[in-house]
Amino acid sequence: MNSTGYDIRIDIQKLKKLPTLSYTAEKILNLTSRQLTHLDELVSIIERDPPIMSKVLGVANIVYLGMYKPITTVKDALLKIGFKALKNIALSISIFSLFKSSPEKEKSYKELFKHSIATGIVSQVISEKFLNEPSEDNFTAGVLHDIGLFALHYAFYEQFQKIEEAFRQVDSLKEAEEKIIGTTHSEIGKWIAEFWGLPEIVLEVILYHHDFPQKSLKYAKTVAIVQLSNFIAEQLGYYPFQVKKESEFYKERVYKILNLPEPEELILELKEIVKDVENL
Ligand SMILES: [Fe+2]
Ligand SMILES: [Fe+2]
After folding, report:
1. Of 26, 139, 240, 258, which residue is least crowded by CB atoms under 10 Å?
2. Is 2 exposed, middle or buried (0-12, 13-18, 19+ CB in 10 A)?
3. In angstroms, what is the span from residue 231 Cα to ligand 1's centroid?
């Protein structure tokens, strides 16, 4: 609880102010490649919603442009990048659209959105290109890691702004959050992920992305990838807040878990890819 005696956790835990998963997102989450009809269904769900469709194609083109010629239609995306990758991109975009808010909050929403997409793209490219371990789940985990911040921005905007203000004065975001709301966006994000039934890998990343990466975690590698990707996204100018302050990055530990080139080298390669986030 914070000094005013108001405990935001009660509001959030009851999810009084948070949106339930939209019909579209819920539907996408439950589609599986084991059922052939689900392939067509995924395409038609995305096509039915033009703003979501254009963002899905935009993200698919940024992530996969090096590998395939431009992806022009949703069907084309399904053929080129596959069911799981398309499903994961569509799921994250439809989740973000739930948190879209009023014009006066647009600027900070965009900041958060770009930070998230950039982190997801970096996670995906690192696993695909530098670790040689293609994993669509790393994209989803990367892109949704700050979902708790979206929730705060959407439902508790006053507190969101106060946290940003406090973050200027203290060492870490965690400290600012504890001071203002008595909990963190990682905890809030975890509750939402549980409530929505998001995959376990996403939940673990949401909860631990600012912590010292523990090797004992079930998804230690993905947690490390997302922490590094979050750092790289920030280095490329995509901060979640208007305050340009770096997040925790336990470099030594991350590099013990992941066998990768130095961050500077990764940043150099990723710069060109990530810059297209601006056009989304
Ligand atoms: Fe975060
Ligand atoms: Fe982040």
Report:
1. 26
2. middle
3. 10
d(CA 55, ligand 1 centre) in Å: 22
Which listed ligand is nearest to 116 at the C-alpha? 2
Global model pTM greater than 0.70:
yes
Q: Which ligand is nearest to the CA of 226?
A: 2
**Domains of the chain, residue spans:** 23-98, 102-280
Ligand nearest to the CA of 229: 2
Burial of 178 (0-12, 13-18, 19+ CB in 10 A): middle
Ligand nearest to the CA of 209: 1
Please state which CATH number belongs to domain 102-280.
1.10.3210.10
128-174: pLDDT as tens digits: 999 999 888 999 999 999 999 999 999 889 999 999 999 999 999 99
From ligand 2's centre to the CA of 227, what distance in Å? Answer: 8
